[in-house]
Design a protein that fits this description.
single chain; alpha/beta; seven-stranded mixed β-sheet; 12 strands; 30% helix; globular
């Protein structure tokens, strides 16, 4: 329990307690089959708790699934051993399970989850994509990214303090690991670096925060700028953890509007 905390801008805003344990659990709501489902994929070092304000907006879905990505919600020792391939395989498996029972499956991904959602879109046919600050381009050069973890590892440093909770407003916090293993940081950087971007063909909504310190929002917007099936939404009062920030209702309202359209 000491390895998790509620963070805001890298600062522990609240300790993780026994009463918070359920926030690390996956979300798995099933109503009827053959209707419409949504897959929610959380970000790096985070948890399904990041979607606690989005789930109520998804009430009209027949199924809501927010899995815990491998290595998350366990211990920093488990997190240090996870690979990017495990994240990909888990996300694909969760999508396939929903696609077996539901005619239409939407996918919403935050940060790393957004990258995984795009991987899914290159292999399958989701009904709709919601990409929240997708981790396609970080705010430092990717060719330099792996060098720093490797250098720190050589001098005996195995973990660094998390900068999680990149939220613009002050009354929310992100449940995440307090420290991050260098091995796992290298995994996520390599996964981003190796991704070959292919424009999704399904309807896609991309949400980007004006104050995002994690991803390069401007360059990500350019990837989707001229796609006829993509809409870019700039959130002027948000940073990186968009489902917890001030503009979250704009995301929720669009999800509900699209659900009513069918």
């Amino acid at each position: 329990m000491d390895e998790f905390a509620w963070l805001w801008q890298g600062i522990v805003k609240k300790k993780f307690t026994k009463s918070d344990k359920h926030y690390l659990d996956p979300i798995n709501i099933r109503r009827k089959k053959n209707g419409r489902a949504i897959l929610l994929l959380h970000g790096f070092s985070s948890s399904p708790a990041v979607f606690r304000h989005i789930v109520p907006a998804c009430a009209l879905y027949d199924a809501i699934s927010a899995p815990v990505l491998p290595g998350h919600g366990l211990s920093i020792a488990a997190f240090a051993k996870v690979t990017g391939e495990e994240w990909l395989n888990n996300a694909k498996a969760e999508y396939q399970k929903l696609a077996l029972d539901y005619a239409k499956v939407d996918v919403l991904g935050l940060s790393l989850g957004g990258l995984l959602a795009l991987h899914i879109a290159t292999l399958y046919k989701p009904h709709h994509l919601y990409l929240l600050a997708p981790a396609l381009l970080l705010n430092f050069p990717l060719n330099l990214g792996p060098r720093l973890p490797n250098f720190l590892a050589k001098i005996g440093i195995k973990t660094i303090r998390s900068q999680g909770g990149n939220i613009h407003q002050r009354y929310e916090a992100e449940l995440t690991y307090k420290r991050l293993p260098l091995t796992t940081i290298t995994e996520v950087i390599n996964l981003i670096h190796s991704f070959n971007f292919k424009p999704p063909t399904c309807p896609t909504d991309v949400f980007l925060g004006k104050y995002d310190a994690t991803v390069n929002s401007g360059r990500i917007a350019l990837l989707f700028k001229n796609l006829p099936n993509a809409n870019i939404h700039w959130l002027n009062h948000s940073a990186h953890v968009l489902p917890l920030d001030e503009d979250k209702n704009l995301i929720n309202n669009l999800i509900q509007t699209n659900l009513l359209k069918g």
